[in-house]
């Protein structure tokens, strides 16, 4: 693979990007582990769906979940993880994980809510790392 800029220039650009993405990844992993250590599980019900536009042609749907904490408080909170239409429906029962000190800090107990926040910085780190590797191979 050839680059329109010299290999050294690719390294100068890609290595700091990789380092920044790895720091982001470390914080994401740390935050997820902290949350999972203290999180409690509860059954919740999808009360409504909120659409958020990501541009002209893309919309994500974020479910609003109602659940009762172990202390008996009724909480209604919007999920941090959105999806396409049809992933959740009003009235659907879901399992949630929530912080007992801040019950509105709630996540649906699913693969995407657990791992997307980690996979994104991992991918962002991987791309410039691969480009830097290709540049190094090109230097030889």
Salient structural properties:
140 residues, alpha+beta, 5-stranded antiparallel sheet, 31% strand, elongated
Write a structural description.
The chain has 140 residues and is of the alpha+beta class. The chain has one domain. The protein is 44% helix and 31% strand. A five-stranded antiparallel sheet has the order 3-2-1-4-5, with helices on one face. The longest helix has 32 residues, at 7-38. It is elongated, with a radius of gyration of 20 Å. The model has no long low-confidence stretch (mean pLDDT 87).
What does this entry show, briefly?
The chain has 140 residues and is α+β, with helices and mostly antiparallel strands. The protein has two helices and five strands. It has helices at 7-38, 111-139; strands at residues 40-53, 59-68, 74-78, 93-99, 102-108.
């Amino acid at each position: 693979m050839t680059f329109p800029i010299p290999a050294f220039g690719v390294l100068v650009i890609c290595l700091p990007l990789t380092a920044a993405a790895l720091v982001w990844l470390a914080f994401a992993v740390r935050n997820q582990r902290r949350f999972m250590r203290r999180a409690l599980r509860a059954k919740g019900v999808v009360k409504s769906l909120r659409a958020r536009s990501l541009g002209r042609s893309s919309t994500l749907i974020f479910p609003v979940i109602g659940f009762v904490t172990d202390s008996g408080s009724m909480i209604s909170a919007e999920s941090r993880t959105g999806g396409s239409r049809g992933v959740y429906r009003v009235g659907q029962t879901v399992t949630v994980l929530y912080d007992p000190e801040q019950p509105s800090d709630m996540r649906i107990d699913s693969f995407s809510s657990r791992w997307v926040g980690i996979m994104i910085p991992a991918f962002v780190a991987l791309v410039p790392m691969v480009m830097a590797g290709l540049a190094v191979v090109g230097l030889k």
